[in-house]
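2.7 Reproducibility. Because tokenized structures are sensitive to small changes in the input, we list the exact sequence used for Potassium inwardly rectifying channel subfamily J member 1a, tandem duplicate 3, including any N-terminal residues retained from the expression construct. No trimming or masking was applied before prediction.
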Amino acid sequence: MMSSLNQRIRDYMVDRRRQKTRLVTKDGRCNIEYGNIKYSTHFAFLADFWTTFVEIRWRYVLFFFSASFSLSWFLFSLVWYAIARNNGDLTWQNPSADHIPCIVNVYGLTSAFLYSLETQTTIGYGARWITPKCPGGVALIVIQSIVGALINSFMCGVILSKISLPKKRAKTITFTEMAVISPKNGSLCLSIRVANLRKTLMIGSQIYGKLLRTTTTQDGETIIMDQVNIDFIVDAGKDNLFFVCPLTLYHVINKSSPFFEMAVDTLQNQDFELVVFLDGTAESTSSSCQVRTSFIPREIMWGYNFLPIISKSKEGKYRVDFSNFSKVVPVATAHCAYCYHNIKGHHLHSRNGQDNPGFEVIEIDSPLDITKM
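Resulting structure tokens (single pass, no recycling of outputs):
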């Protein structure tokens, strides 16, 4: 039991180290740090304060939301307190019985704070009100009303913008945890499956990829993050995809592909990261969003193919079985792309398939007639 626990701990630490070395995590976050930034550059974030407020964490937004209102109420209460003091309205000043106050029932700092809060939030309990005796108080109530409206507008805009961020829509678009390499339409292809979990479509979807690796030029210069374009296609084409059901993306491994020189026994020894992007516009909100994920060599399975997930019921309805979304089966695949058309390699894998973790299974009641995509 202890050996099994130790093995799990070692596997967990290995996964943590691998996650730190990849540029883009599986959920699309970029793993990059910025250092030695000049202090003068920080003022650029203040100049673009709107974007700064929208991008900061929720805990800071809620803090600024509470602090902005509380601080404005308190600051204006000090001004109201000063006006009442100058007019002799406070209790310790012992006003006469026929004294006309600037603000009725404001006789201390606490009552001044309550009046400030009621004024800015337009509560209007009726226990405190301003009299026309003090023109300064009339001007102050106008200023406080305008400041309160500005704070309300700004903070409500920030919260609404954060709620409707396009990256929230991207959470309902998911990729398979693993990519596969297998024959497809007479070519050797690298395949990835993507699904839209909402019934609303993504309009104008475009799919592309970048292969990140460290290379050395002929001049001896080392490029840490060399980017190579990776083209993906689906059966329906490359652009303006009909993203109504899960799609399988294909990258043809030909002579121009960076995967052409790789083979089944050398793939795991490679050092690269395949980043896949899906850009589109949400049909319901008309907001553009981008979904990202990445694959490292150990997440690419050579000689496997995805199981079909689309079927048609007896009632004529199309159904998607998400229990097969990440399942793969072994297929006869050549040893490498170079020998694909000359030597047909076969790999003896288990016929039970292999589950890729990280995707929730949705149960479907009626049996399905599986059809080939």
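The first helix runs from residue 2 to 21.
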